[in-house]
Amino acid sequence: MNGRIHLVLSLGLAVLTAPAVWAQDSTASADKVKKDTGVVVAATDPAPAPATSPAKAPPRIDAGYKIGPQDVLRIDVWKEPDLTRQVSVRPDGQISLPLLDDVQAAGLTPLELRNALRDGLKEYITDPQVTVTVSEINSRRIFVTGEVTRSGTFPLLPNMTVLQALSSCGGFSQFANTKKIYLLRMDGAKQVKIPVNYKELVKGRKPEINILLQDGDTIVVP
Does the reported pTM lie above 0.90? Predict the structure, then answer.
């Protein structure tokens, strides 16, 4: 009698523990698959979506900006993917486009160039819709030299000031003499030296001393 009771209890215990054992075996199998293949089998653990880099925004320019050599332009022609492209203005001031060949771009505003392209394409396309965007300004440049973290040539952005240019250089070196910064500017055939009061610039109390830069200006940080 005791033997039968012991047998029944053993069978019941086996039935109760079977789901737990099966679950443990399943987990072990999944872990084995993960270990062997590197694949995560859990449905609640999806692979993260790849990160995407934000598109670089075009520089903000005023309506009167004149396109120059080496500027990069984005030409969009609505519903004409073969004509839509990014082009660089050549040293001779022209750009090359299908159907129109060489087109003068330097010296024109984006609106004037758009009108010229639209008029030229009317011979081939009914009511062409054209957009011209300046993607990069390379025709106007300033120079920063001396005791700065990153010296060199920088694009002259619209309404760019001395303080903005200095901020673009990543700061001063430990040897910089910020009391003797100056700006070199060509006035006709003559070079003019303009002192830059950096201490007053950063205070922002005298906006008139935050000089608007011109093409070819050089900032020197001794």
Answer: no
